[in-house]
Design brief:
CATH class: Alpha Beta
Strand content: 25-35%
Oligomer: single chain
Keywords: Acyltransferase, Transferase
Pfam families: Acetyltransf_1
Distance between the termini: 42 Å
Number of helices: 4
InterPro entries: Acyl_CoA_acyltransferase, Bact_Acetyltransf, GNAT_dom
Helix content: 25-40%
GO molecular function: acyltransferase activity, transferring groups other than amino-acyl groups
Organism: Sulfitobacter delicatus
Largest sheet: 5 strands, mixed
Structural class: alpha+beta
């Protein structure tokens, strides 16, 4: 079983590689830099919480959590924005351990819910999250405006 812990500065180059691998898996061209990853995970105003799965041969995966809120209910939440496990570590409980650690982190932050999204075609991920205790919610229309 891997050791799950918060990411530290020496972990960031490997997390960056894994984030780029996840983007490539989804057909995206990642533009995340090491400086931005450090700023957003370890800087003075962290934007994301990174948890890493450490094994005997290095990092085997990571989870990235972003805070959310349902203000009208005073309900804190977290979005499991990224979950990635290296090919060589899949099927060995790493993803399950990362999800469990993410849920524990959210509880410690006073959260009452955790969300996660998957590609509509990724049935394997959907089944994984159902096994982890997540309920599927009806997709709601979301909108975005780019600021820069």
């Amino acid at each position: 079983m891997p050791h799950i812990r918060p990411a530290t500065k020496p972990d960031l180059p490997m997390v960056l590689d894994l984030a780029h691998a996840l983007a490539a898996y989804h057909g995206d061209a990642a533009t995340l830099s090491l400086a931005a990853l450090e700023r957003d995970s370890l800087g003075p105003a962290p934007w994301v919480t990174l948890l890493v799965a450490e094994g005997t041969t290095g990092l085997h995966g990571y989870a990235a959590l972003c805070p959310q809120m349902q203000l009208q209910f005073g309900a804190r939440g977290m979005d499991l924005h990224h979950l990635f496990v290296c090919d060589t570590a899949r099927g060995k409980g790493v993803g399950r351990a990362l999800v469990q650690a993410a849920l524990e982190h959210a509880r410690r932050q006073g959260c009452v819910y955790v969300t996660v999204g998957t590609d509509l075609q990724n049935r394997r991920a959907q089944a994984f999250y159902r096994r982890a205790g997540f309920d599927q919610i009806a997709p709601d229309p979301r909108f975005r405006v780019k600021l820069a």
